[in-house]
Amino acid sequence: MMRKSFAFLLASGIFAFVSFTFVRMKEVPPSIPSNVALSSAGKSSLTGSRRLFSSSFSSQSSVALTMNAVRLSNLLAYWRFDEGTGDRVKDSSGRGYHGLLRGFAGKVWSNEAAPVSFGSPYAMDFDGIDDWIDLGSDLSIVRNVSAVTLSAWVRPDSIGDSGKTVVNFSVNNAGVPTADSRALMVLNEVDEVRVGGRSADDDELQSEITTGGPIVPGQWHHVAGVIDYAGDDVRIYVNGVQQATAGTPNFSQSRTANTDSTSNAIGSEDDGSAFFFDGFIDDVRVFPRALSASEIESLALGKE
To answer: Which of 33, 85, 191, 283 has the lowest CB atom count within 10 Å?
Structure first.
């Protein structure tokens, strides 16, 4: 058995690392499929054993191929909620957007985590009364971006007409706490998902809301919202499937304002004032671009 590794840059802007292991086999192999599914952490992976016939190899050889393609555009923020103790949650993107727990009297972390395959020992249990995660003030997470994707696993205990916030990033309000969102994802209108935001800080909220009641209390769902400021478009996905929505977003400019977000939160309004989430939230991610449908499907499959 012999193993060789190579690294190269694809035309699509992806670094690919390929390892080949040569093993003696008795069968002549067919070709390896070329598809590589993107993962939720900005990576893609195709791992498996496929037989390959080539003039470079004998008919009794096979190749076990492992490919990890790392996208150059990384996550803006990533909260795993896997700490299990303490009063803070870590941003695993490496950008330092750590969160501080507010409220949370009693049980905070639950081992009833999202159904993912990459190992997630805990989820956060929000009481719907005053529990929220303060991500801090003056953050550049959604500063000067043409698109953003919000992603999370949720298991609401209740929703109701008033709405339950998943994640919010506010406009710049000169240091004064505000609930005006530059990017938001909320469960409301009983069983629906609303996603939207503002490009210019003085705009009205531009959003879309699902119309098919895709959220069932007591069940885990993967929810994702793509906010395309440049394309005047908002897309909402539940469990990897794009949903029918109502709304006609019309952003006033093609990028968000080049200023920091004053208030930022998970599980409540941007400033922690209302719309507290009731239930479990896990694995919250923010991407600096509009993810494709296949990328969101990969997230919903819980691959990574």
So the answer is: 85
Q: Where does the chain hold its CATH 2.60.120.200 domain(s)?
A: 77-300
Tokens of 197: 């935001």
Torsion of Cα atoms, 250 then 255 then 259 then 261, to 10°: 60
pLDDT at 67: 25
Read off the DSSP letter of residue 138: S
Is there a contact between 197 and 183 (Cβ–Cβ < 8 Å)?
yes
User: 3-class SS at 156?
Assistant: strand
Decide: 222 and 282 in contact? Cβ < 8 Å: no
State the pTM of this model. 0.77
Q: Give the single-character DSSP code of 128.
A: S
- What is the per-residue pLDDT across 241-252, written as a single tens digit (0 to 9) for each? 999 999 999 999
Length of the chain: 304
Give the integer Cα–Cα distance in Å for 150 and 148.
Answer: 7
**Per CATH, is 77-300 categorized as 3.30.365.10?**
no
Residue that has been written with the tokens 């919250």 in this structure: 284
CA distance linking residue 32 with residue 22, whole number of Å: 14
